[in-house]
């Protein structure tokens, strides 16, 4: 049996995920592998480095810092989340990421990005958070229209949620057969067609496959959710989702809203901890 953790993205809705995984770590829940999409990657990597509390700590501390996120950094750099601050200043100096603990932890960790030339997902196992590893995490979380395309080798990439928002089937294909999914939308959520597609078509006109992927994303997302619900009912997946819509914007600057989303995640996981432990112990 291989135990897997799958983390949906959702920008600052990821504070819910941060609360969930912190409680898991505090209860010494271990997985053979984890995969994160967008915020699920950049926040979820702290599971492999075993640093509960870090995600909410640095987000609460720096959410109002103009170098971290906002229109100022978007205008100056092309990225609404500042690359230097988010991927260098914070993990290297301001709230250090434990690179060595990450490297030594045998749990596999994967990030999902989307190749803009094909519109297809790219799944990358990130064993070391070196310069290239951090770029894969950044690519996974680079939201279209407000982020620069991230180039790594022959890849040109943006947000992993476009290609595969919740990569359950991919993880099953790797042999993970006891999976836990953390969602950032409540039960009953149905994704609608992207309202800014005219802007997308203009800004990404060089990448018709990416435009197509973004145009159809809602259909693929909803089909994936139907499959998740079916597997959940059959006892093949353990799903953790927020009890209600999370009241945060993609680039939330209100500390209290971030803390509220984080606490929602903690409380939700505490309520489901016994059921999770039983699910993971079944053979």
What does the model show?
Helix 3 runs antiparallel to helix 13 (255-281). Strands 1, 2, 3, 4, 5, 6, 7 and 8 form an eight-stranded mixed β-sheet that branches. The chain is α/β, with parallel strands linked by helices. 48% of the residues lie in helices and 14% in strands. The longest helix has 27 residues, at 255-281. The chain has helices at residues 14-26, 39-48, 54-62, 71-77, 83-94, 99-104, 131-140, 160-163, 168-173, 197-203, 208-215, 217-233, 255-281; strands spanning 3-7, 33-37, 108-115, 121-125, 150-152, 155-159, 178-182, 237-240. A hairpin with a 5-residue loop joins strand 3 and strand 4 (121-125). It is globular and about 50 Å long. It contains 13 helices and eight strands. The model has no long low-confidence stretch (mean pLDDT 97).
């Amino acid at each position: 049996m291989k135990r897997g953790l799958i983390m949906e993205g959702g920008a600052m809705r990821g504070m819910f995920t941060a609360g969930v995984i912190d409680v898991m770590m505090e209860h010494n829940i271990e997985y053979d592998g984890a995969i994160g999409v967008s915020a699920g990657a950049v926040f979820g990597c702290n599971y492999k480095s075993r640093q509960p509390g870090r995600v909410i700590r640095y987000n609460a501390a720096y959410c109002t810092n103009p170098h971290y996120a906002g229109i100022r950094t978007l205008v100056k750099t092309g990225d609404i989340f500042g690359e230097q601050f988010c991927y260098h200043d914070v993990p290297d100096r301001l709230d250090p990421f434990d690179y060595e603990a990450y490297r030594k932890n045998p749990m596999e960790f994967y990030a999902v990005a989307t190749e803009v030339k094909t519109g297809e997902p790219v799944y990358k196992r990130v064993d070391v958070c070196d310069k290239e590893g951090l770029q894969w995490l950044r690519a996974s979380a680079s939201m279209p229209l407000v982020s620069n395309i991230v180039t790594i080798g022959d890849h040109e990439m943006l947000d992993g949620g476009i290609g595969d928002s919740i990569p359950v089937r991919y993880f099953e294909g790797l042999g993970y057969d006891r999976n836990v999914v953390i969602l950032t939308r409540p039960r009953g959520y149905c994704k609608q067609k992207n309202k800014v597609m005219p802007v997308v078509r203009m800004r990404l006109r060089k990448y018709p496959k990416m435009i197509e992927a973004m145009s159809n994303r809602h259909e693929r997302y909803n089909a994936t959710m139907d499959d998740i619900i079916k597997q959940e009912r059959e006892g093949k997946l353990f799903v953790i989702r927020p009890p209600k819509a999370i009241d945060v914007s993609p680039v939330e600057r209100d500390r209290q809203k971030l803390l509220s989303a984080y606490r929602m995640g903690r409380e939700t996981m505490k309520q489901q901890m016994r059921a999770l432990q039983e699910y993971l112990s079944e053979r």
